[in-house]
Every structure is written in C-alpha cells, then in structure tokens.
Amino acid sequence: MQPSDLNERIVARGQALFAAIADEKPALFSSATWTGRVLQWSLQNEEFKTSLFRFVDVFPVLHGSQQLTEHIRQYFGADEQLPPVLATGARLAGKLGPLGGALLAKAITVNLHELARQFILGESTEELAQRLKVLHREGFAAVIDVLGEATLSHAESGEYLATYLRLLEVLAAEERRWQALPGLAGAPAINLAVKPTALYCLANPMDFAGSVAGILAPLRRIAERAVAAGAFLCIDMESYRTKEITLEVYRRLKREFRDYPHIGIALQSYLRDSEDDLAELLAWSAREQLPISIRLVKGAYWDFETVRARQMGWECPVRSSKSDTDAAFERMAAAILRQHRFCYFACASHNIRSIAAVLETARSLRVPDDRYEFQMLYGMAEPVRRGILAATGRVRLYCPYGALVPGMGYLVRRLLENTANESFLRQTFAGAAEIEKLLEDPEAVLSRLRAQERDAVPGDAASANAPAFRNEAAADFTRPEVRAAFPAALAAVRGRAGETAPLFIAGRDVLTATTVPSRNPNRPAEILGHVCQAGTDEVERAMAAAGAAFPAWRATPAMARAAILRRAATLARQRLYELAAWQVLEIGKQWDQAHADVSEAIDFLDYYAAEMLRLGVPQRLGELPGEENFLIYEGRGVAAVIAPWNFPLAIACGMVAAALVTGNTVVFKPSSLTGLTGRRLVELFAAAGLPDGVLNFVPGAGSAIGDQLSAHPDIALIAFTGSLEVGQRIVERAAVVCPGQRQFKRVIAEMGGKNAIIVDADADLDEAVPQVLASAFGFQGQKCSACSRVIVLEAIHERFVERLVAAARAWRLGPAEDPAFDMGAVAEAAAQRRIRDFIEVGKEEGELLYASPLPEGEGYWVPLTIFAGIRPEHRLAREEIFGPLLAVMRAADFDQAIAWANAPSFALTGGLFSRSPANIARAGNEFRVGNLYINRAITGAMVGRQPFGGCALSGLGTKAGGSDYLLHFMDPRIVTENTLRRGFAPAAKGAGQT
C-alpha cells in the first residue's frame, strides 16, 4: 500500500473515532467540578499554572491549616491572581480569620484528594480490588503501576519489592471475581508495570554491571511470582540515564524465563535512539527465538531530559518537537506490527491520530487482533478510551496504585500532560483545534517545521551567535565508550608507575637528590612515582627565571596569551581520561569526580582566555572633546601559586591560568600529595607553547617553600587555596614589606568552610536526602564546599534523619578506581588520624547515628559518619573537619536555622531545601555565604555559572570562574592624552562623517 493511501485511511479512521466521542469531555476538563474549573483557569494563566503545579507538588507534606493557608498565600498571592473558585474561598478565609483559613485549607485538601483519586486507582489493596472489578464490568482491563518516584535506601527498595509481591498475591486471589473480557481473552488478566530502579536504590550507569545485577535480583523474585500467578510483567522505561541498564535487565530476564511469553518492556518514542533500540530488540528476539512484548509510549520526562542535557553539556536525548515524537511513534508501531508473530504490541497513547495509524497499519499488514492492544492512562481521556473500547474491545488502563504522597510526582506529570500547549487532549477537549489538524500526518508537520527552521536560521547565523564560552560536558556514563575509557586510562597510568617527576625551571627539567613517593591512598603500598623536591636554591632559581621572563610576557598581546590557554584546553580534552585517571589513583577520586575535575580545568582555560580578550582591549572612558582616557590592565609581576590536593588539576589550573593570561609569570607549588598531577598540568602548558621561564614548577615541603615564596621581595601576588591556618600565615607574611620590595603583595586566597544545608519543614526529602549525602560524602567529604552541617527543622527532623541514615547505609566503601563503590579512602594518614579524633569528639558532643563498616586491607579508611544532637557551641558545628563526618542539628524554626547557619566564622557555601517561596527569598537575603544553593547539592560550582569563593574567614572575596576574577591578578592604569593642539581638537566622528 502506498503511504498516501494508508494516510487517507488513517484520517478516515480518525474522523470516525472523533465522531464516536462526539461532544463528550473528560472529567478533568469539566466545568462542573472544582478541579475542572481550576484547570481551565490554569490554561488561561501560565503563571497560575506554574504556581498550581508547584503547590500540588508540596501539598502532601503540609500539615495543619496554618501551614496550608500560608503556602496558599505564598504561591497564589493577591486575590486577583486566583480563579474565581479559589478567590471566593480566599476572601472568606480573610474575613473569618483562623477559622476561615481552616475552612479554606479543608476545602482545598478535599478537592486535591479528589483530583488525586481521579488518577490513582487505589491507596489500599481493598480499594484497588474493588475498583478493578468495576473497570472489568465496564469492559476495561488494567495494568497496575505501584507509585513511587525514588527509593533512597535498601529498606525503601525492599518495601517496593514487598508491595509487588503482596499485590501479585492479592490479585491472584481476586482475578476469579473479574468479568471476562473477550477482546483480551488471550492475554493475562493480571498485568503489572515495574519501575526497575525502584528495586535497587544504587542504580547508576557508572556501575553498569553492578546496577544490572542489583535490579535483576529482586526483579527475578517478582517474575517468579508473576509466572506462578500467570500474570503479565512489563518493565517500565524511566529516565534516559538508566535506559541501557533497563534494556540489559530485560534481555537477561527474558533469557532466564524464556519459556514464559508474558514479560515485556516499554519503549519511548520521544528518545532519539529508541528506533535503534527497537531494531536491536526485534533482531535479538529473532536470533534468540524469544517471544517479546513491547509497550510503546511517547514519553513523560521531556522537560527533565531537556534541561538536564543542557546543564550537563550533552546532546539532548529527546526529540525537539511533538510532531517528531508522533512520527517516530508511527514508524516504531509499524515496525513492531510487522513482527507480530513474535512481538506482542501494546499501543499506549490517547492521541486519536496515533491510534488510527496503529489500527490501519495493523489492518494493512493483516495483523490478528489478538496480537495487539491499546493502553491508556487511568483518569485521562475517558471519551477516547470508551470510543476505542467500542471500536476494538481491547483497551487496558494504566492504573497507578499507592499512597498520595509518593503519587504527587506522577500527578504533576499528568497535569502537565493535560495542560501542555501541544497536548493532544488539551487541543481536543479544551481548545478549538480542527479535527483535520489533529489528524494531519506528523511526517508532513515535521517537514514543514524543518523547512521553517532552515529558513529562519541561515547557516552562518548560528555560528555567529554561538556563545564565547561553554562549559565542558560532564561524563555521560550512559555511553559504553565512556565507561570503557576509564579502565583503559587507569591501566595506561599504572603502566607509567615508578617515574620520577622533575622540577621545571626556565623551560628545563631539573632533577634533585630528594624525592618523595606519590601513593595511592586506597592502597598506600602502591607507589605511582616519585616527585623531585625543591629546596631554597631551586626556588630562587625559579624566581629568577620568572622575573627574567616577566617583561616580555607582560608585553605579549592578550590575544597571544589567550591562544596558549586555548591550546592547553585542547590538549587537556585530548588527554581527558588520562588526566582523570591520575587523580583516581593519586588522590582517590571516583571516576565522575575525577572527570569533573579535568572538565573544570578545561573550563578555566577557555573562560579566562575569553575574559582576557575582553579585558585586554583598552577601554575608552568619557566622551569629552579634547582628551582621550583609556583604562588598561597589565600583569603585576611574579605570581606564586600554591595549590591544594583536593582539586589538584582544576584549582591549580584555574590559579595558574589566571596568572598567566593576565601577563604574570608563575612559580607553581603543588600539594605534596599530588605532585604527579601537578606535573601533568605543567606539561600541558609547555606543550601549548608557553615560553621558557613563564611557568616554573617547584614541588616541595609546604612549610618551607610556602614561607619562602610568601615572604620573597620579588613576589607580586600569591594565589592560594587551602586551610585557614596556612592562609592566615600567608596573609601575615605577605603583609610585611621586605627590604628591596617594590610593591605590596596581593593575596588571592580561598580557604575553608563549615558549610550548612538547611532542610525546611516542607522540603522534598526525595531530593534533600540524596543531595545532602552527595554534598557531605562525595569524594569522602574532602571538598572545601562540602556539607558538614545539616540543620533540619523540627517538624521534619525525625523523618529526614530516618531516611538519611537508611540511605547512608546503602553507600559502599572501597577503592575509588572501582565504580561499584561510592566512597573511598581519605587522602593521607594524617587526615585519617584527624578525622578519627573528631569522631571521638562527636561521641562526646552528640549521638552517633551511623558509622559505616570499613573495608578490609590497607587504605586510609575512615567511616562515613553521622552525628545528631549537635549544638552551635559544639566543635563539630564550628571546626572544619575535611572528611566524611556530618553533624545533624535540630532547629526549632526557620529563624533559628538561619542564625545557626550563619554562626561559624566561615562563609563559603550553604544550601537550602525548601518549597516555601518566602523562605527561599529570605535565605537569599539572610544566609550569608559566598555561594548559596537552593534545592540542589552545594558542591560542583560551574565556571561562568556559579563563580566560586567565600567571605568572612573563608576567603578574601574573590570569585574563581567569575567575570571579575582576573582583575585581582592585574594592576589597572589610566592613560590620559590631551588632544588639543594650539586650540585645534580632532572632531568626534558624527553620523555623516567618514
């Protein structure tokens, strides 16, 4: 059949289906209900819609009429912004005071529960069983989905598993009471959808093999129970992050249960690579002689996938338009139907065009009716589901089951789906879209869109508008080549073990008699190499070389200096995995942490290069006739860069690059723990073409070299990142003007933090718990930005602590090079001793909630440790520990939480988890730290987006990765010229002058 003929039949079938539903409207869009009127208002007011959905999201955790009415006020503001159905209640509440507020809260609670019940089939097995009987009497089958957005611990994953096992038991007993459905006589009456990642709380593409095994173990138990009950089991597809894991889980499960045909998987047509996934699945099924089943959906996480891809610098995994998704859906449906002999098809859509396409494609391919069915979401598009049931007799409703609180995420997605501008249901039942438009071939629509895009954006316009700076992409561990790159890089680095890293002075390697070994903190007996140590003489030679190179380097045009940084960035990209592997082994960073460190170094190189091109152009000041005033910036002289071990490439590179690109020469001292990584940085700059003497590398004992450099009369500036104690000493010594010194030293210092996260009473714990854990224990808590205090409001304290400790118990300790482990060893034996001492202090000051078991064998291991009952006066609340120790503090209210957060002398980073607009705004004004993060982790600042640096005793107010950072490395000068000559002044050029 020709495509045009098939499309004509699809349109005709769609028109018939539209005629069958006539003027019916779904309950959700009915003006007869409170919910319908509120949603209709949201279609007219985008601001109200956003507030409504955010309020629905926070609603389940609000307790008491006061908290409810306060959030209603914060989210919806003045009466004129409310729809009439809410405005009347709000005015009544205002007149009646607390009683009116209680009445309004009660009314909204009742109506939101009704809204939830429209989408959620039941909150108990008894309610579920009763409603399933009703659905079967109406002719509808069901697929049951257990609600739940996130499992954070093995205990929560176990609860999810137990729910499914109980559900199968209950449904097996209830099945005999259901009315038979002739249209689905060949399919199991019991049909379950399982979210695989909910069965294993540690699912992570970085640990691909471990994630597959972790999901398979509980899923196997569900499958065994499903086989015993004769039930159908569908593996749901969730976010793109776990797509490949889910596909592998399905393939392995099918092999294990090869004689059982009723195990299927969901695919999402909005994913760009789903057609390839489908082709591979169909080919695999044919090779293995395994019957499969595919539930084809459009996809429900478009906003999340789009935003996440942009934030991470990845290619967007989802299609950019609805027509593209719809066209892919029709192509994929046709591909499945062509293989109907061994692939059962479930068409999951409310879109009448998509349904008509499946019906007519199946007819043209002579697909038997018992080889495909239609599925729709419970609570949506009732007229469509009744019309399709009448036409086919084969409709199964996707029915969520569970409590309201875990169901809010699902409910918000359904509301978004119903009210999105491109939503088929909105256009059909709440808009005025013509049937011809709704039934148009999506391929034709897509062709028009692409033609418009080509006309709107000429080829050169896109590149002309490209941003000057873009963050380096994060590691995408969904890609197998990324996962394979790390073991290869680690092996290559180990192949270089035993090397001796020399000093680098005046463009030449310098060997010294004294060396120190560089050890793997996870296996201290493993020596990666030896690093030559500079003494006083070598430092003086480096200072002389840097001083001699300074005049020529300062005179080098900014464009040429920036070009060297960009070449270094290119070289770092080419060696990205090698540079990351050095950090995995030398300082114990996990794969993702090490990759992020290298990416940040690349960002510093690119960003500072772009900034110097801006700052390197003389700036004309004023427009008065007869004079010209120009502001210019130039390097100060020799810069001492003293770098830390915790970000041995990124922070070192940022400080070195800033000093170099601004026209200074550098004497660079790395941490004694990461000399090999520091040497790799010097090699990058040398390979990029940096002239001799401009960058000099002098690893050595911090106390000796740091003191020598900070007091040296020829040092113009010092860039330092490290502890408060050392930073304070540098500031003191740099302040002394030595004999022969020609300028005051400038100190750029970032020091410690005692960083707090506040968890508000209305916080989303599904987000707060994992982000607090990541902030506190990522890279063993060895980040200056790490969370060391979590201040939890009393109303939510017990539940937060319960989930926090349960989630912490799931974290695994082991060597950083193995992606199966979440936390590794700390940097050195001295750090190990210090952290253990603080654990003993914590036992005296508070209550030990959890201390993780330690791995066997060598390694600088300390437990992941959580204390509760910590007060502001305790050492655990005041002193920087720099390790995996978290203090939990219980605050009576938000006032106390803010006061406690600001109590220490440090002010580096802080965080807030809240869904109160008022408290979010208040934290922005009153939580006084250098970097405040709201509803996200407090580590991982991005160059150009979150310039990093603190105040108070955390730093001197500079912001690395920000637009003003380079100014601290330069001196500004003004050049003023009197352009009058005997009364004659050059005229400013006007509009008509040439």
List keywords for this structure.
TIM Barrel; single chain; seven-stranded mixed beta sheet; 16% strand; 994 residues; Aldehyde Dehydrogenase, Chain A, domain 1; 48% helix; disordered C terminus; globular; alpha/beta; 4 domains
Explain what you see.
A hairpin with a 2-residue loop joins strand 10 (503-505) and strand 11 (508-510). By secondary structure, this protein is an alpha/beta fold. Helix 25 (591-615) packs parallel to helix 26 and helix 30 (765-777) crosses helix 31 (794-810). The protein folds into four domains: 3-22 and 120-448, TIM Barrel, CATH 3.20.20; 34-116, no CATH class; 499-512 and 536-568 and 603-751 and 967-972, 3-Layer(aba) Sandwich (Aldehyde Dehydrogenase, Chain A, domain 1); 755-954, 3-Layer(aba) Sandwich (Aldehyde Dehydrogenase, Chain A, domain 2), CATH 3.40.309. It is built from 35 helices and 30 strands. It has an eight-stranded parallel β-barrel, surrounded by seven helices. A seven-stranded mixed beta sheet has the order 23-24-25-22-21-27-28, with helices on both faces.
Short précis:
The chain is 48% helix and 16% strand. It has 35 helices and 30 strands.
How are the secondary structure elements laid out?
Blueprint: H1 3-21, H2 34-44, H3 46-58, H4 65-76, H5 84-96, H6 98-119, H7 125-138, E1 141-146, H8 154-174, E2 191-194, H9 208-229, E3 232-235, H10 243-256, E4 263-268, H11 274-288, E5 292-297, H12 302-312, H13 322-338, E6 343-348, H14 352-364, E7 372-377, H15 382-392, E8 395-401, H16 404-419, H17 424-430, H18 435-438, H19 442-456, H20 459-464, H21 480-494, E9 499-501, E10 503-505, E11 508-510, E12 515-520, E13 523-532, H22 536-555, H23 558-574, H24 576-586, H25 591-615, E14 619-620, E15 627-635, E16 638-642, H26 650-661, E17 665-669, H27 675-687, E18 695-697, H28 702-711, E19 715-721, H29 724-734, E20 746-750, E21 755-759, H30 765-777, E22 787-793, H31 794-810, H32 829-845, E23 847-851, E24 865-868, H33 875-878, E25 885-891, H34 894-901, E26 906-907, E27 909-913, H35 917-926, E28 931-934, E29 951-952, E30 970-978
Parallel strand pairs: 1-2, 1-8, 2-3, 3-4, 4-5, 5-6, 6-7, 7-8, 9-13, 16-17, 16-19, 17-18, 19-20, 21-22, 21-27, 22-25, 24-25, 27-28
Antiparallel strand pairs: 10-11, 12-13, 14-15, 15-30, 23-24, 26-29
Helix pairs in contact: 1-14, 1-15, 2-3, 3-4, 3-16, 4-6, 5-6, 8-9, 9-10, 11-13, 13-14, 13-19, 21-24, 23-25, 24-25, 25-26, 28-29, 30-31
